[in-house]
Amino acid sequence: MQNNYISQIKVLILDDEIDFTNEISDYLKNTGFIPFSANTPEEGYAILSKYNIDLLILDVRLPGTNGLDILKNVKSLYPGIEVIMVSAHGDMDTVIDSIRLGAFDYLRKPMRYIDIQIAIERTQKYLKMQRNLAHAEEKYSLITSDIASKIGRHCIGKSKQIIEIYELAKTASEYSDINVLITGESGTGKEIFAKLIHYMSKQKDNYFGAINCSAISDALIESEFFGHKKGAFTGAISDKKGLFEICNEGTLFLDEIADMPLNLQSKILRAIEEKTITRVGDTKQIQTKFRLIAATNCDLQKMVDEKKFRLDLLHRLNTLHIHIPPLRERIEDIGPLFIDFTKEFSEKINKPIESIGDDVFVALEKYSFPGNIRELRNLAERAIILSKGNSLQICDFPLPVVNKISNTTDSNTKIDEEDAIHKTLEECEYNQVMAAEILGISRYALIRRMRKYKIDIKRNEAER
């Protein structure tokens, strides 16, 4: 059965030997490729400018010019084209120069058809990976490259849920006076969408301030929000602006809002309603106009019922509600996200990845991802580091995760916060720092939740 992907690849053979170009063209055509041939550089450049060539088979020696010069020009003008160099007079210096200039492979004449086939198959895998990455960026990106660079993401997803959430975020960005509450499990990308709202709004050139309410001590949290006057408390050696003041005409993002102390919630509510704040240790009121976006993985209404969260503050925060479903409920986003992360980290650590095994995507879609997108991102990074070659295979993933993937039968099983913490700690061999990173929370917040769910911290540390 003919590979549909092969039939889409356009190959140009540029060689001064007419018999050679005809022979290779016939072979490629019969194999399922779309071949083009040229016997002079001028003919070659004409074809390159007219057709979207994927692969160039280029002779090192051509009349009136050096094939290495053509290689250099082609990689400059058409960086997406891969090049296989061929020559009857090749030496090691020429091979090295070819690779340095960007050639993907090098073959010596005379060559067997099997040599050409193997070389093209090697190149083909790389081309397929590059196409997958480009396709994912083009098809699944919901945002402009400018916004993507600011929020630190290139690809959000293709699922119906994410597209609907994007439309809600776009609507929110058009009304700078409304507050937004974003809910969802840890690691689902709540801060990403908060940044998206900001950078799509008219306030995009003003400050975006983010604070994790569970990551700072109760003693300092009021100073962080409202600022303080010099001498207000021990260590206050100068006046300091708080986030409400810093984010004037911008956006303040409060992550883990459920962890905000109850006694501070009334002051936050007043700042939201009156758009004025008073620094700690001062009496002067300061006007500030900010948009507030809050996020939580908790059920705030339940916390209201339990007298742990103010109902009036919830109403103020919840002008527009955006809920981000967990990754296991939108498995069609796993593939494009993983491809995007693979590209990000392969470039970051300079380790090219040319292909990803099909079984990897099948396995990932079976996994429940208690850490959601953050865990997927970590998996991609670790797999690239652990991979022995330029292809990601299922064996490149951490053994605990591979076992979980293999044993998973229902990828849509609901996992609550307590269960997610248990599972993540187990997968990380009770390394709290790693587990907190996967869950998208601080280690301090993880310890608080472990105490909440009566998970034995000392026993876990002993087992680790």
Automatic annotation (TrEMBL):
InterPro entries to which the protein is assigned, alphabetical: AAA+_ATPase, AAA_lid_NorR, CheY-like_superfamily, Homeodomain-like_sf, HTH_Fis, P-loop_NTPase, Sig_transdc_resp-reg_receiver, Sigma_54_int
Record PTM 4-aspartylphosphate, positions in chain: D59
Domain of life: Bacteria
GO aspect biological process, one term: regulation of DNA-templated transcription
Every Sigma-54 factor interaction domain range: 155-385
Keywords, alphabetical: ATP-binding, Nucleotide-binding, Phosphoprotein, Transcription, Transcription regulation
Keyword Nuclease: no
Molecular function in Gene Ontology: ATP binding; sequence-specific DNA binding
Domain Response regulatory: 10-124
A Pfam family annotated for this UniProt entry: AAA_lid_14
Name of the protein: Two component, sigma54 specific, transcriptional regulator, Fis family
Organism: Pelodictyon phaeoclathratiforme (strain DSM 5477 / BU-1)
Source taxonomy: Bacteria, Pseudomonadati, Chlorobiota, Chlorobiia, Chlorobiales
